[in-house]
Amino acid sequence: MMQGEGELNHLERPSPLNEREKVLIQDSWAKVYENCEDAGVAILLRLFVNFPSSKQYFSDFKHVEEPEELERSVQFRKHARRVMNGINTLVESLDNSDKVASVLKLVGKAHALRHKVEPVYFKFLSGVILEVLGEAFPEVVTADVAAAWTKLLATLCCSINAVYEELGWTSLSTSTG
What we know:
The protein is mostly helical. It is built from 7 helices and no strands. The chain has helices at 19-33, 36-50, 67-72, 74-92, 97-114, 120-136, 143-166.
């Protein structure tokens, strides 16, 4: 097994967000969500540039090479909006752990069963989200805000991973250990 492989399966669940962290996330997200589609497009573009293998899961645009062409794609923009709306639901529901768990379970099941997405891509996406938000909103994403988002996204990855494990997900990269 290569270094780093399988580490996603052994992430420790972070402690729950405290009230201050929830407020930091919600306040920063309000500013990001004002430009929902543009932020979503920037996040997905960065994911595809940094992790080109992630495009394999998108039949509508997996063969599109040029970022400019992706930006113009109606399907691409639609998926970017869907990602942002999903994040928005989580952020709005931070005080309702049952709803957060329910949303993450639905997302995990859909991506495992229907889309067959390797769970490591959620870790990649989390890093990209932090990177893009920090660059696009430097005045909003302070060190404390970034730390709160890191904790939220780690929780998301752990929750999605748990759903995959519940479903008995196996992959070539993690089943040969």
